[in-house]
Write a structure and sequence with these properties.
195 residues, Alpha-Beta Plaits, 6 helices
Length: 195
């Protein structure tokens, strides 16, 4: 049979465990914070087919050029690369204007490359401004998912943005639509930008 002293030890033990758990939760919460950023996603369209047609060596050279060109434009417009997977990038910008100007510059640079050298890959771009959680230096949250889904809606050579992101900016809108994005509760108004 447990004595009051035994029960006191159990309670004290639970209390210490609860305090440790609470301290761990506090530490996690203190290492996260919310920020508002404009996210830009890029992707080379039909890249698998390109690799098959070009061959691995030519593809590697093209991808190296693509990565240098886009990274230079991200830097010039104040973007911070947050992810690079294969032939796509995720980039964060402090403001929507910088992200949109970068997207325009990317499409114009690719068009210039095509005129001068006969080829540049078709790249689709999505832009979305949202709040995100920063955890250990990485962005997390639904806004990142929405931005990626918007990027996936673009075709090669297109820039698609959430209408709210470009509201008030001096940009030419080619088309508007309200769409359902996979995993996103409310419909989102999208615009395709002229460049």
């Amino acid at each position: 049979m447990a004595t009051p002293l035994d029960e006191g030890r159990v309670i004290a033990g639970r209390s210490l465990a609860a305090q440790d758990a609470l301290a761990a939760v506090r530490e996690l919460l203190e290492s996260t914070h919310r920020v508002e950023r404009t996210f830009l996603f890029t992707d080379v369209v039909r890249s698998t087919r390109l690799v098959a047609e070009m061959g691995d060596d030519a593809w590697a050279r093209l991808l190296a050029w693509h990565d240098r060109a886009l990274r230079g434009l991200f830097s010039r417009h104040g973007g911070s690369e947050i992810d690079h997977a294969g032939d796509g990038f995720a980039v964060a910008f402090g403001g929507a204007e910088d992200a949109v100007q970068c997207a325009l510059a990317i499409q114009r640079a690719l068009a210039s490359q095509r005129r001068a050298h006969g080829f540049a890959p078709a790249v689709r771009i999505g832009v979305h401004r949202s709040e995100a959680v920063v955890l250990d230096g990485a962005y997390r949250g639904i806004g990142m998912h929405v931005a990626a889904r918007i990027g996936a809606r673009a075709d090669g050579g297109e820039i698609v943005a959430s209408a709210a992101t470009v509201a008030g900016l001096q940009v030419e809108v080619v088309s508007r639509s309200v769409v359902e994005l996979k995993g996103v509760e409310a419909p989102v108004e999208l615009v395709t930008l002229a460049w």
